[in-house]
Amino acid sequence: MIDLYTWPTPNGHKVHIMLEETGLEYTIHPIDIWAGAQFDPAFLKISPNNKMPAIVDQDGPDGAPISIFESGAILLYLGEKTGQYLPKDVRGRYEVIQWLMFQMGGVGPMLGQAHHFRQYAPGKIEYAIDRYTNEASRLYRVIDRRLADHEYLAGQYSIADMATFPWLRSYERQGQNLDDYPNLKRWFLAISDRPAVQRGVQVLADRTRKGPMDDKARDAMFGAMQYQKR
Question: Counting CB atoms within 10 angstroms of each CB, which of 30, 58, 107, 229 has the fewest?
Fold first, then answer.
């Protein structure tokens, strides 16, 4: 059994999708990042960087529980545990890993900044909006070029696709139009049609924030609560 500590965000959805695709049993422990639950001492023992998702696999590799934080590390672990969506041969494995790292080091951080300055920043900083919207466009073009001659990012459907897809679901908030990226759009629609993906993005969907961010949520995400010494 996997204990899953999560919230309905792109990083959470990555792991939700992988768990649904593999059929592993899991128990959900909501971590309300808008309310500051990520700073709870019990959660920090599992995820010391106060970020979700995190997991505890009660049936770890040596039969004892193992805890893992960072969504990319979780995907790699689950791929190794199940033998699914992560090739065993060296070439295939690193084809997947390099595109997973592309998401972890580029797509997630840069699109996250686009979200922040386009949606959440208290003032409109045109330099930042332009910087991260343009970087989002560049990353979309990289993906579109790759998918011109590959069905999925690493050839076959893998954890690299599961990691990238959730971040592109908010393309309009990133200043993007999928019609500008026909290969990416084909890939996006194909993944959207997968039943496990549809189930994964519905995990905790009723907790998705609607409406403007209040002061408590802003403090937890971007303010003093985030930077307190612990």
Answer: 229
